[in-house]
């Protein structure tokens, strides 16, 4: 396997249940978009967590780190809620031999207009072209987690 | 004006705010879909309420009834949350000279896959072809409100 | 069966083949949209023809008429190219006991923005609410075929 | 400006004109998708050509090369028809100081299901992370143009 995608929840995975009139984290809908892209790479998608990123605990982050360590792939993409993406990126520091790229979206992947496909594609390409390390791919740019912040008002990631 | 559409909120109007990670009733997105349909009728859209239908009060229903009475159109469509659509339909009984059709959706209009456009189109056609009275247009069928119920498990309206 | 949909081709059914870089009439994509609408009516879809409507012959129209006559449903929707929809409507005159509604679209159903779902929903509702006869449901309105024309410049049907 | 996108036509830019019942190269629809991605980079989109890539001449390719040479950006993305993308890539060899990534799509960007957004995002990321040279970003992978071929039957690019 060349590349593994771990899903952890967040806005990108949100689906809507009318029966309850709520909007919850569900099965990741990005699989369908990747099918359309007809990828010429050997990859798989593995669900690790299904949580809003504000609810992630240290134990959850340890689980994600272990999943990355156990993966046979050296190219890793992690889809994640945007609110604590930077914290999870920092918790993944120091894993040798792996290029790890975190991404997510501001609008759920299920929406007609969404940044989800764009961001996942960016992250998959970055994971293949960058040297080992941990990165964030959001809003069309690659970020060093120590130099990125989420601008809540503008609803995007920025360089700091 | 031949036809007036009143929006009241509900699932059909739900939009997503990542900054708050919540899913709230917003400005109705159906306008964009109607633009695409390039309608050959004289109509307008008026926002009356922006609420989940479970939160509607008697005062809210009186407001909707007044809006219908004040409309210069005899053909009326009301978009509404599905949970209490039948109750609002009953609160609109007995208005002479108007064909009133309520509709809504199980998935937000903003979703890539949604029943919103289908239902609004059904309701607009029913409002033009039926005699005066109050009707519900959901799941491809026209319902007499006194003989309709929402099957929450199957997530659709049925004849009773 | 309460309602039968016959597909005949036209813009609504157009799909794109990159291998040939052409845009051809394919399997009707409306089935997927109807699935999303979760219809509460007993219906089926039957493909009769797969042609641009400008290429339809008298023999083709006789085939469509025969399909309608053979249907066990009294409520009939026919999806059709817009250029000769009126001619086909006239070729279906005089069938007793059936409400027949023709519809189509200006943009293929496969497009992200399309009038296809809106028009099919309009036609299905009109087929259930109107008395026997032949009608055209386009651009949100029901037309008597003898009083309708396609305005090619405005890309919509109008009353004449 | 950090990155410039040149559009040249091809499937990715195809729009549909019902009035003529044809499918032609139009104004590039990718602008809307990039708007949704809310990019945090300084870029612009420039239309150079509007052609099926099978119709491109040596003069057309010289025009594209000149546009790249004239650009103030060192990061370049070119959207292009897939049939002769490799030939154009080869015609862009030997431009110092620029990372040039060609991409396109098998389904028009206007479609509800399309590989266009995925591919443009891949290309924009590759243009920012790779050293100077000419590359093709298709089907989730980066290709050296001299080692890529389009598999027409499988409708995707492959390593050779």
Description of the structure:
Four copies of one chain form a homotetramer. Chain A is α/β, with parallel strands linked by helices and about 160 residues long. In chain A, about 25% of the residues lie in helices and about 30% in strands. Chain A has a six-stranded mixed β-sheet with strand order 4-1-5-6-7-8, with helices on both faces. In chain A, strands 2-3 form a two-stranded antiparallel sheet. In chain A, a hairpin with a 4-residue loop joins β2 and β3. The radius of gyration of chain A is 15 Å and the shape is globular. The termini of chain A are far apart. The mean pLDDT of chain A is about 90. The interface of A and D includes residues 114 and 128 of A.
What are the salient characteristics of this protein?
homotetramer, 160 residues, alpha/beta, 6-stranded mixed sheet, two-stranded antiparallel ribbon, 4 helices, globular
Quick summary of this structure?
The structure is a homotetramer of 160-residue chains. Chain A is an alpha/beta fold and 160 residues long.
């Amino acid at each position: 396997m060349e590349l593994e995608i771990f899903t952890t929840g967040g806005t990108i995975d949100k689906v809507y249940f009318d029966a309850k009139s709520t909007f919850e984290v569900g099965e990741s809908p990005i699989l369908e978009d990747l099918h359309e892209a007809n990828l010429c790479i050997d990859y798989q998608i593995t669900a690790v967590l299904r949580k809003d990123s504000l609810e992630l605990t240290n134990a959850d982050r340890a689980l994600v780190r272990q999943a990355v360590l156990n993966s046979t792939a050296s190219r890793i993409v992690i889809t994640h809620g945007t609110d604590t993406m930077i914290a999870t990126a920092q918790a993944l520091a120091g894993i040798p031999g792996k290029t790890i790229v975190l991404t997510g979206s501001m609008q759920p992947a299920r929406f007609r207009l969404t940044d989800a496909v764009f961001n996942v594609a960016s992250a998959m390409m970055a994971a293949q072209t960058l040297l080992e390390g941990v990165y964030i791919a959001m809003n069309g740019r690659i970020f060093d987690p120590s130099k990125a912040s989420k601008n809540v008002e503008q609803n995007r990631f920025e360089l700091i």
